[in-house]
Amino acid sequence: MRVLGIDPGLTRCGLGMVDGVPGRKPFVLAVDVLRTSPHEETGVRLAALEATFEEWVQRYRPSVVAVERVFAQHNVGTVMGTAQAAGIALLVAARHGIPAALHTPSEVKAAITGSGRAGKDQVGAMVARILQLTEVPKPADAADALALAICHVWRGSSTDRLDQAQQSASSVAARQQRAYAQAATQARTKGARA
């Protein structure tokens, strides 16, 4: 499974491409941090993010895009920019028919370090260890993007299978319900004719 991890941000946006399967060590294909200037208009900055996401999707052909779920913070401006960047990532994934998954920061930390309360240094060190890198990816946005991708390789695929099974069960139940309703309607119609 090839996963594009995106740590969304308007000023710094981390991108990490990882290939792997559950139960085995994943390996990194690419990592980068896109920076946009706070002095530029928001639309120009979002367009730069979109162009970069498009380039990565076309170059690396991910099977899934994993994006950090945005949480409210005290700084409304920061959360707005983060949400806008996440929205662009989801848009590009949808445009290409690529499934997208949202992971909470604590979920990612728990997958990578074993603790949902791990600090950025711990996450970075574990990302380097898991991917057998000689040093921790810098800045932290790069390590966070790789952590998102690793998290999805290890946890997301099982979550995807559960979601697919639930959708399939719901679909079967809906078909059965329609069949029962149709049979009941036909029985009432026959009874009314008799």
UniProtKB/TrEMBL annotation:
Where can this protein be found? Answer: Cytoplasm
Q: How is the cofactor bound?
A: Binds 2 Mg(2+) ion per subunit.
Gene Ontology BP annotations: DNA recombination; DNA repair
Catalytic positions are: 7, 68, 141
Q: Which GO terms describe its molecular function?
A: crossover junction DNA endonuclease activity; DNA binding; magnesium ion binding
Q: Top EC class per UniProt?
A: hydrolase
Q: Which cofactor does it need?
A: Mg(2+)
Q: Which reaction does it catalyse?
A: Endonucleolytic cleavage at a junction such as a reciprocal single-stranded crossover between two homologous DNA duplexes (Holliday junction)
One Pfam family this sequence matches: RuvC
Query: Could you tell me the EC number(s) of this protein?
Result: 3.1.21.10
Q: Which domain of life is it from?
A: Bacteria
Please tell me where Mg(2+) 2 binds in this chain. 68
Q: Which UniProt keywords apply?
A: Cytoplasm, DNA damage, DNA recombination, DNA repair, DNA-binding, Endonuclease, Hydrolase, Magnesium, Metal-binding, Nuclease
Annotated Mg(2+) 1 binding sites: 7, 141
Checking SUPFAM superfamilies in the record gives: Ribonuclease H-like (SSF53098)
Q: Which Gene3D superfamilies match?
A: Ribonuclease H-like superfamily/Ribonuclease H
Q: Which GO terms describe its cellular component?
A: cytoplasm; Holliday junction resolvase complex
The reply to whether Repeat figures as a keyword in the UniProt entry is no
- Which PANTHER family does the record match to this protein? CROSSOVER JUNCTION ENDODEOXYRIBONUCLEASE RUVC (PTHR30194)
- Record's family? Belongs to the RuvC family.
Summarizing the function annotation, the protein's role is: The RuvA-RuvB-RuvC complex processes Holliday junction (HJ) DNA during genetic recombination and DNA repair. Endonuclease that resolves HJ intermediates. Cleaves cruciform DNA by making single-stranded nicks across the HJ at symmetrical positions within the homologous arms, yielding a 5'-phosphate and a 3'-hydroxyl group; requires a central core of homology in the junction. The consensus cleavage sequence is 5'-(A/T)TT(C/G)-3'. Cleavage occurs on the 3'-side of the TT dinucleotide at the point of strand exchange.
Q: How does it assemble?
A: Homodimer which binds Holliday junction (HJ) DNA. The HJ becomes 2-fold symmetrical on binding to RuvC with unstacked arms; it has a different conformation from HJ DNA in complex with RuvA. In the full resolvosome a probable DNA-RuvA(4)-RuvB(12)-RuvC(2) complex forms which resolves the HJ.
The cross-references to NCBIfam families, in alphabetical order and at most eight, read: ruvC
What is the recorded name of this protein? Crossover junction endodeoxyribonuclease RuvC
UniProt lineage: Bacteria, Bacillati, Actinomycetota, Actinomycetes, Propionibacteriales
